[in-house]
Amino acid sequence: MKITFLGSGTSQGIPVIACDCDVCQSIDPKDDRMRSSILISAEEQNYVIDTGPDFRRQMLKNDVKSLRAVLFTHEHKDHVAGMDDIRAFNFRENRSMSIFCTKRVEEALHREFHYVFAEEKYPGIPKVEIHTIGNELFQLPDGPLVTPIEVMHYKMPVLGFRIADFTYITDAKTISNVEKEKVKGSTVLVVNALHRSPHISHFNLDEALAFIEEINPARAYLTHISHLFGTHEEIEAELPENVFVAYDGLTIEI
User: Which of 3, 50, 58, 127 is least crowded, fewest Cβ atoms below 10 Å from its Cβ?
Assistant: First the structure.
């Protein structure tokens, strides 16, 4: 299984519009971060977690020619706004896109993309097949089993996902002991770390590192990075030896 980080930034991305900070002005390509998303390549199929506003650019940049399904963590715009662009795969592969999401996310998609679900459909709109999931094991089409992990994004439930020994969690502030048990045993863990200061709805660096230490994976990667955190080089310099900063385009093999 191969994981490609399509985006590793927070809701504003990096650089942030009209910002003159050192991070936003950095010439290091690792400091250019699109909204958080990953591509999972497994069993000769591609699956994406979240289609944020940068989805089109992410697909083009990574030369993705086929996409079997989309998994959504939650309904915030930086995670769903690019869903309309799945229609390119509808046309290329002549099939509806399988979408896996909670009932809450499904309701948000109906609001945000009402034309997709209208009885009288306009020509050329995306074609989707919704699979409503909860906090139970499910299987991807032509692919692996997935274990959902429910975390809290302030008061909003968000799903992380574990596939085999790989776990991806974004937009987490708190995780119950029951859900942590699902994560334990992961050899590779990806978790959000917004910046160093406390935040109401995201792990900061200390909280992310404490969670990583508790899970004790062989490798961990920080994602959903804010421009307030620092440059890629600055962050990496202060991390434990088994923890790394994710960056757009990074690929890892599981």
Answer: 127
pLDDT in tens, 141-158: 999 999 999 999 999 999
Residue type, 92: R
Question: How many Å apart are CA 242 and CA 66, to the nearest integer?
Answer: 32
Amino acid (1-letter code) at residue 116: V
Q: Assess contact for 74 and 171: CB atoms under 8 A.
A: yes
157 touches 169 (CB < 8 A): no
Inter-residue contact 75 to 51 (CB < 8 Å):
no
Kindly report, residue by residue over 191-243, the tens digit of the pLDDT.
999 999 999 999 999 999 999 999 999 999 999 999 999 999 999 999 999 99
> Do 34 and 62 touch, CB atoms closer than 8 A?
no
Straight-line distance from the first to the last Cα atom of the chain, in angstroms, rounded to the nearest whole number: 5
Number of H helices, E strands in the chain: 7, 14
For tokens 């069993």, the residue is 43
Helix (H, G, I), strand (E, B) or coil at 119: coil
At residue 59, φ and ψ (nearest 5 deg) are -65, -40
Q: Name the phi and psi angles at 2, rounded to 5.
A: -115, 135
Omega within 30 of 0 (cis) for the link into 144: no
**Domain residue extents for the chain:** 2-14+33-247
Give the E-state strand segments of 140-203 in sequence order: 145-153, 156-163, 166-169, 188-192
Strand pairing class (188-192; 166-169): parallel
Q: What are the Cα distances from residue 28, in Å, to 15, 220, 231, 232, 251?
A: 11, 22, 8, 8, 18
